[in-house]
Design brief:
By secondary structure, this protein is of the alpha+beta class. It folds into two domains: about 300 residues, Hypothetical protein af1432 (Orthogonal Bundle), CATH 1.10.3210; about 170 residues, Beta-Lactamase. It has 23 helices and six strands. A hairpin with a 2-residue loop joins strand 5 and strand 6. Helix 7 crosses helix 16. The radius of gyration is 27 Å and the shape is elongated.
């Protein structure tokens, strides 16, 4: 962690670190003068001109009285506002001047959204320190922001690791950085001396502090909004904010939506207009469009991977390959190749008395290895797993042709796997029953496609032939 902090401070972000430290130090002093703030900003001509441009914007200066000097800006729009503008513009300049990665832009958009939400929530419960709350929320993930902005080859490495199916983001970050993003953020908060609110925002023991609570709620809103303003997480946050601020739930939601709209203005005012497309929209039609765009960035079918996996399985029939390699190729082909978000091979276990998860791939599927099991035969409540194995056919559940089988999707199955479309097929080694293959796209809620079902059937058949070859050997 210390090596990363030294690198960011000395080689990558020295100018940003110096400005952020100096601007924050002015907030700590009891009698910081207008001239002291002006001196910090005037060290960088580019920063000065940008602060003046923001100060002259309709957002900060609706009277449109011309501001030509930093000292005049401080008089007209306030010491804390000018300091906040300086901090925000420095952050954008320090991170966005190079070719910004998609990860950086998405995180910076979330950070601005969190900052505006937090400041407006704080307005209900604090008489001062609202600008401090804004900055604490803006820099709440400064370690990750700095990494994506300046990580170089390591950022390329982590981006590639995060693209792998079923990867745990925290574990991947630790593997590449040697520390977590949270620890890196805490290290930079301490190194840059960003103050008590920024530090306390990462402490679970300080969540009763109103300023810290405002920061925490702002960050949570910015994350939950990506799943839609009507998501279950957002409904819970609306209730928390209503309770925290003493306003009705309707007013709390209205405040959140207005803050999201304000974030677009803030980002544009600060010269980060390209981030606006990443801030959740409040127009119902735009919300729908943004959700579709986010889904489009999720796992997509890869024809090259699909064809290679089918070819590899075809060769394994004659080569009589290792079972582990066969199953790895199967799951890779279905997940990365066909674009199926979650895949599970459930095998007959315990004397063929029950189905247990043997191999899984996809976000959140790791728990299936420990928790998923179904009785193989259950006369009082037959289910789709045993039905598919007994009838030896691949099935597409959730389409009209299979509606008559819906009652075989039992409550325990829905609790374990969720609701929606899925594919299921028997895995046989010749005539020997091995288990059942399951696949869905429930992470994004996208409908399954005919091409995916064709690929699913083909992979099922080839895997059976490979396993039959192994059993003969």
């Amino acid at each position: 962690m210390q090596a990363w902090i030294d690198r960011l401070n000395q080689a990558e972000l020295p100018a940003l670190a110096a400005v952020v430290q100096d601007l924050h130090r002015l907030s700590q002093a009891d009698k910081s003068s207008v001239q002291q703030l002006a001196d910090v900003l005037l060290r960088d001509a580019s920063l000065t001109s940008k602060v003046l441009r923001v100060g002259n914007s309709a957002y900060y200066n609706p009277s449109q009285e011309a501001i030509r000097t930093i000292s005049r800006a401080i008089v007209l729009i306030g010491f804390d506002n000018v300091r906040l503008i300086g901090m925000s513009v420095s952050l954008i300049d320090g991170l966005m001047t190079r070719a910004p990665r998609e990860q950086l832009q998405m995180l910076l958009a979330r950070s601005f959204h969190a900052a505006v939400q937090a400041r407006n929530i704080a307005g209900y419960v604090l008489t001062r320190n609202q600008e401090e709350v804004f900055i604490a929320a803006l820099l709440n993930q400064v370690g990750e922001l700095a990494f994506w902005g300046c990580g170089g080859e390591q950022a390329d490495e982590l981006a590639a690791a995060l693209d792998q199916p079923g990867v745990n983001p925290d574990h991947a970050a630790r593997d590449v950085l040697g520390t977590s993003f949270r620890q890196l953020t805490l290290g930079l908060v301490k190194s840059w001396n960003l103050g008590e609110i920024a530090s306390l925002a990462h402490s679970s023991s300080s969540q009763n502090d109103p300023a810290v609570r405002a920061v925490s709620l702002g960050v949570k809103i910015s994350e939950a909004a990506l799943d839609g303003w009507d998501s279950p997480a957002m409904e819970a946050l609306v209730a928390q904010i209503a309770d925290f601020t003493g306003i009705s739930r309707e007013d709390a939601l209205r405040q959140m939506l207005e803050s999201a709209e304000e974030t677009v203005k803030v980002a544009t005012t600060f010269g980060a207009g390209k981030l606006c497309r990443l801030i959740p929209n409040t127009d119902p039609e735009q919300i729908k469009l943004q959700q579709q765009e986010r889904k489009a960035r999720l796992l997509q079918p890869n024809l090259l991977v699909l064809q290679q996996a089918l070819q590899d399985l075809g060769m394994m029939v004659s080569k009589k390959a290792d079972v582990g390699l066969i199953l790895d190729t199967l799951l890779k082909g279905l997940h990365q190749g066909a674009g199926l978000e979650r895949v599970m091979l459930a095998v007959l276990a315990d004397g063929q008395s029950r189905f247990r998860a043997k191999r899984v791939v996809g976000e959140g599927t790791e728990t299936w290895l420990e928790t998923f099991q179904l009785p193989a035969t259950q006369l009082e409540q037959p289910h789709i797993f045993s039905y598919a194995l007994r009838n030896r056919e691949a099935l597409w559940l959730g389409v009209p042709a299979s509606y008559n089988l819906n009652e075989l999707v039992t409550l325990p199955m829905r609790q374990a796997l969720g609701q929606g479309m899925f594919f299921i097929a028997p895995i046989l080694a010749g005539t020997r029953e091995i288990g059942v293959l399951y696949a869905d796209c429930r992470l994004s809620g996208r409908a399954l496609k005919h091409e995916q079902f064709v690929a699913f059937q083909r992979f099922t058949q080839l895997t059976g032939r490979c396993l039959e070859a192994v059993s003969k050997r």
